[in-house]
Amino acid sequence: MAKIYISSTYRDLAEHREAVYKALRQMRHDVVSMEDYSAASKPPLEKCLEDVAGCDVYVGIFAWRHGYSPPGHDESITELELRQAVETGVQRLIFLVDEEAPWPPKLTDGDRSRIEALRAELRRDYVVGFFASAEELATDVSVAVANLTRDGDIADEKPADPANVRFYLRSLQRMTGELASQIRLYRMSSAALVAVGLGVVVSGLALEMMEFGLGGLLLGSATIFPVNTMLSTRRKKALLDGYQQELAQEPPAREAVQAIRAFLRTQLDDEVFA
Question: Strand locations in 33-146, DSSP E?
Answer without folding.
Answer: 57-62, 91-97, 129-131
